[in-house]
Amino acid sequence: MEQNIEKRIFGRSWAIWMADSVLVKFPKLRNRWAYDYGVVCKGLELVYEYTKNINYFNYIQSNMDYFLLPDGSIRFYDKSSFSLDFVNNGKILLYLYKVTGEECYADAAHLLREQLRFQPRTSENGFWHKQCYPHQMWLDGVYMAEPFYAQYISMFEKEIAQEDVFLQFRLIDKYLKDEKSHLLYHGWDESRTCFWANKKTGCSSSFWGRSLGWYACALVDTLDYIKNISQREELICMIQDLAEAVIKVQSPKTKVWYQVLDQEERYGNYAEASCSCMFTYFLLKAIRKKYISAAYYENAKSAFYGIIREFIEVDEHALLNLKGTVYVAGLGGDFLRDGSYDYYISEPKQVNNLLGIGAFLMASVELDKSTII
């Protein structure tokens, strides 16, 4: 089987195949200002930069243009909710501004930067994930905000402001990391009052795959814009520590990762596509950037083969489908979302969830790049 996969990889780029599938299956991303659009567009951005196929750029631009209104506002964007999820698409706006020079993209990015100026914070200045989740930092929010924040500062502000970006990672590392496994919990409540929070540590109780995948991607993507030497060194240490922790929970059987990372054999747990793609991207990019040893390449390559075996199918139109992505998972809001093992495995899986597809595109491009290094 693996030999056949090898032939398919080098016979046709998985990144291009999936990108072409996206353009057919999802011609318009227009019903909400949502972070999953930013994830799939980020994946297509990487494919465009690698291939220079203008169809991918046009897709990104046309879909983002729909949200930019004549008065300079963003359609469906609600600043008053102070949700870090709404910031994620900002990295696509910055990319479009960088390529085209059109001020409408910068103007929209300025709105998202303005949200961060007033984002509610913990006592040590960590961003709350949302206004409706007081005192809480989530791993998801690091991905939603920090790569955009760091890039925005590098383009429009003095780099000394990146100290605030770095602080978010330092606080996450300080409060959400498990001392034994070095995996990180999904969320942390500084007040320790939310029903899901450990009364001693403030952390949630499980290691959810995609939340740690968000964090892993945020580390390697944010580091592209951090110039301060000491901050870079500390972030690289976080990457190295996380890489070691992540491969310890990579399935020895399937080579992918599971919905609850450290409990593969427990009843109800399942292989999950989005986190598997995110960790593969994280490892491959960290290797390419020389943040971690090239010895991790075998883990990353076997993970990619595992993703193809476990999650990819070709439909009747010769387009790709990605199976096995958990729809969503969160903390709080109701007592079902309690951060427990039973909660995470109860969330439904989807075929062609954009979060999984975007992460697959990112991992696939990094795999393509690794074959020519």
Can you summarize this structure?
With 373 residues, this protein is mostly helical. The chain has 14 helices and 6 strands.
The spatial strand order of the largest sheet comes to 1-2
Shape: globular
Average pLDDT over all residues: 95
**Rg estimate, integer Å:** 19 Å
Portion in helices: 40-55%
Strand fraction equals under 5%
Q: What is the overall number of helices?
A: 14
How would a crystallographer describe the biggest sheet? 2 strands, antiparallel
Work out the number of β strands.
6
SS-derived structural category: mainly alpha
Following the backbone from N to C, one meets helices and strands in this order, namely HHHHHHEHHEHHHHEEEHEH
Uncertain segments are: 6-10
Distance between the termini: 25 Å
Please explain how this structure is put together.
This protein has 373 residues and is mainly α. Helix content is 53%, strand content 4%. The chain has helices at 2-11, 14-25, 35-51, 54-65, 90-100, 103-118, 139-156, 162-176, 209-222, 229-248, 273-288, 297-311, 341-346, 354-370, and strands spanning 136-138, 187-189, 312-314, 320-322, 325-326, 349-350. Helix 2 (14-25) packs antiparallel against helix 14 (354-370), helix 3 (35-51) runs parallel beside helix 14 (354-370) and helix 7 runs antiparallel to helix 8. The protein is globular, with a radius of gyration of 19 Å.
